[in-house]
What does this fold into?
Amino acid sequence: MKKLIVLSLFVVAAVGLNAQSFYFGGALTGKSTWLLNKAVFDRGASQDIGASFGNDFGIVGGVNFNKATGVEINLLFNTFSQKYVGTEDDFAGIYSDYTSKSVFKSFDIPILFKTGSEGAYFEIGPVFSFINKSTYERDMDNANLSDIKATDNLEAYNGTNIGAVMGFGGNINASDNLIITLGLRFYYGITDIGGVNAFGWDKDRTENEDNAYNYLDSSSDNKYGHKDFKTNPLSGGLKIGIIYMIGD
It folds into this structure.
């Protein structure tokens, strides 16, 4: 991944030599977040998902080749969450409703091709993401079972992820050089980030539980879905930013 980032930055620097204008500023996105995992989605009422939200913020910088096209780089601090609700009888053989939540934080570097005219823009490009913190927590409705407070589980995640981002919106001139941007941005993580399911189990734990269940019931060797355990983050939300333009 480092080679891809270096190559991307080299290309941006090279094309920047022919830039008509430069800009820099900051941006904030509030978004709906999803961790797509077939091993969770196929489990029915035992592992349902709940509405989840996150955000990212940071600095942006870009070059415009002309009035219609340019390239932009973002350096973003990202927070991503997924809530779960379910009813399950596999907690030490005790039936209980529960809610749980997974959260991870990452440092993201989107490199975007941008085009537009008359105040509107469209953006698309790769995102290089580095996960640096994650937690899992669970609340049990049954008083006989213990809750799990927010617990670090960074070892369950793959440290890096490559994704794609697409967005569109408008630019509002606040002054001759100051521009406010407002738009929608969507993101999909292409590579598997690992992580955990609604119970807090990673892929290895899920496989162990499947093997144990298969020992009791040979008709199923994928009850908890270890064969389908792959996690791809997905998000979409409202982005607002402010940039200062240098040049024509």
